[in-house]
Amino acid sequence: MLNFLKENEKQWVENVYRKLESKIEKECGRIGEKIPYIAENGRYRNDMGESNIAWWTNGFWGGLLWQLYHAAGKPLYMQKAVQVEERLDRALNGYENLDHDVGFMWMPTAVANYRLTGNHDSLVRGLHAANILAGRFNLRGNYIRAWNGDRTGWMIVDCLMNLSLLYWAAEETKDPRFDVIAERHADTVLEKILRPDGSCNHIAILNPMTGELEALPAGQGFAEGSAWSRGQAWAVYGFAISYAHTKEQKYLDAAKRAAHFFIAGAALTGYLPLCDFRAPEVPVYYDSTAGACAVCGLLEIAKHVPELEKALYEQSALKMLMAMEERFCNWNEEEDGILGMGKAAYHEEGEERQVPIIYGDYFFAEAVLRLMEKDFFIW
Ligand code: GLY
Q1: Does residue 158's CB lie within 6 angstroms of at least one atom of ligand 1?
Q2: Given Cys at both, which of 22, 201, 235, 321 links 258, Cβ 3.0 to 4.6 Å?
């Protein structure tokens, strides 16, 4: 257990972990070979392996299972995680629908498998994915292109999380090109997406021939100039990851700046993060997935700052995790989905929809395991 935790907090963490592991074991039986995304009315009905194999969230169920395999050692979790990884081959080989989110898809599946078991097929999958990501780099603008179609100049804050695939590939192949691409992209996010006050844009549209900034649209947040909380969480954790791999102080400083804005925003609503920290007072939309990801980022930052600075990140992470557990978690083992009140985007079909989303459960589990020092650093 992390040593900042008090005795009653340790007991709380252990209790949450027991419930989490027990519920995921039950979910394994119900989910079978499906790739889950959103639980509706207590069930992951849709199989993303059938409906959209290239969807960016398709690696998180595998990642959650690898985390639990690493912590609990049950072969069931490995077997199910490998099934997901093998199904994703259709996306990898299909190529066309892939975008920058190959990091989210293959870090928690193939690369996690390779790191834990040394499986050679998984190494190859990871390196294929890394080359696809590196191939999206725009040399003029120094950014990794996010999406496909005519959006050649679009870069997004989320991609900071995908950079871990490049850091891993550089380490694995001893080829520094991957590191350079990752760092150049991170630098462009610092320059064009992270604002001086620590908040960030979701999207920056650059001229793909000159790299000049053309627009900063709202993306999945409320409006232009607002502060979409999941994008903010990607910045907190993503910059911390870039620091962990490069030890460049500017990335740790950026992670801290984004974290301070996140903590201040979440504190206004009892440490239950809103979907956008700059949205109108009503309607109230939360996004627990942003909270869970930010908690992991805050705990990562705490690993790298001097003793005197740790408490801000550790205590805020704990407060947020405890608040979300109390208010948003569903521990009914007969229903799928643990962390409720996730929101995919501020404006979406079925606008008021607040649901458990697979990446919320993934980051919630990673956060609990981090507190127990039983996590496996996937990123
Ligand atoms: N990467 C897309 C999202 O956070 O919704």
Answers
A1: yes
A2: 235
Q: Are strands 203-206 and 137-138 parallel, antiparallel or unpaired?
A: unpaired
**Starting from the edge strand earliest in sequence, which strands make up the sheet with 213-215, in order?**
154-156, 203-206, 213-215
Exposure b/e, 359-379, CB count within 10 A at least 16 = b: bbbbbbbbbbbbbbeebbebb
Q: What percent of the chain has pLDDT over 90?
A: 98
Q: Is the CB of 56 under 6 A from ligand 1?
A: yes
**pLDDT, tens digit, 9 for 90 and up, residues 131-154:** 999 999 999 999 999 999 999 999
Gyration radius from the chain CA atoms: 19
- Shortest-distance Cα residue to atom 1 of ligand 1: 158
Give the pLDDT confidence score for residue 220 in this predicted structure.
97
pLDDT of residue 350: 79
Name the residue of 56, 57, 363 whose CB sits within 8 Å of the most ligand 1 atoms, as the mutation to test its pocket.
56
Q: Read off the pLDDT of residues 341-351 as tens digits, 9 standing for 90 and up.
A: 999 999 988 77
Please choose, from the candidates 119, 112, 190, 120, the residue with its C-alpha nearest in 3D space to the C-alpha of residue 155.
190
Strand 154-156 to 203-206 pairing: antiparallel
Residue 352 has pLDDT above 80, yes or no: no
Q: Cβ(181)–Cβ(162) under 8 Å?
A: no
| 254 CA distance to ligand 1 middle (Å) | 20
- Backbone CA torsion sign across 320, 326, 331, 336: negative
265-to-161, 200, 236, 363 alpha-carbon distances in Å: 22, 13, 13, 19
Ligand 1 centroid to residue 58 C-alpha, Å: 12
Nearest-atom number in ligand 1 for the CA of 289 is: 4
* CB neighbour class for 51 (10 Å; exposed up to 12, middle 13-18, buried from 19): exposed
Mean pLDDT (whole number) for 192-216: 98
- Distance (Å) from CA 9 to ligand 1 centroid: 31
Q: Which atom of ligand 1 is nearest to the CA of 161?
A: 1
Q: Could you identify the atom of ligand 1 that is nearest to the CA of residue 344?
A: 5
Task: State mean pLDDT over 293-314.
Answer: 98
Residue 104's pLDDT band, with cuts at 50, 70 and 90, is very high
